[in-house]
Specification:
It contains six helices and five strands. The chain is mainly alpha-helical and 130 residues long. Helix content is 58%, strand content 11%. Helix 1 runs parallel beside helix 3 (39-53), helix 3 (39-53) packs antiparallel against helix 4 and helix 5 (78-91) crosses helix 6 (95-106). The strands form two sheets. Strands 1-4-5 form a three-stranded parallel β-sheet. Strands 2-3 form a two-stranded parallel ribbon. The radius of gyration is 14 Å and the shape is globular. The chain has a single domain, classed as Rossmann fold, CATH 3.40.50.
């Protein structure tokens, strides 16, 4: 399962779906499941956290959190980016979402945890909303 930006932000910013998203991560960890995100998702989270909370300590805390959950972080390569360009054309996704799908398909990941409705039109993946 690939974890999208909004899942991490729900947890870290303690938004309305905080408990559900936290439970998802805890369940994946309990099952020793392999789960993924991308460094681009991590960067996006850091940018949003810093813009909302304005503190370097919050950035450190987020990185500690990411490290503690033992998630596999994919670094998108050129193949992922070419795939992203295809998904931009095919589904009219924005770059962030297309890169998620590109990383997923290039790494044969079918499940995505996300609250972003734009992924619903992508036939190559299954979207899960905790």
């Amino acid at each position: 399962m690939f974890i999208d930006t909004n899942i991490f932000l729900e947890i870290f910013l303690k938004d309305k779906n905080y408990e559900r998203c936290k439970r998802l991560i805890l369940d994946l960890m309990k099952k020793n499941a392999v789960f993924y995100t991308s460094d681009f998702v991590v960067y996006s989270c850091m940018l949003i956290i810093y813009n909302k909370l304005g503190s370097v300590q919050h950035l450190r805390n987020f990185l500690i959190f990411i490290n503690s959950i033992k998630i596999s972080v994919i670094r998108p390569g050129l193949k992922d980016m070419f795939k992203a360009a295809e998904f931009i054309e095919k589904y009219k996704l924005d770059f962030d979402d297309a890169l998620v799908v590109g990383c997923m398909t290039e790494n044969e990941i079918k499940e995505l945890a996300s609250y972003d409705g734009d992924f619903d039109k992508v036939k190559e993946i299954n979207v899960f909303r905790p």
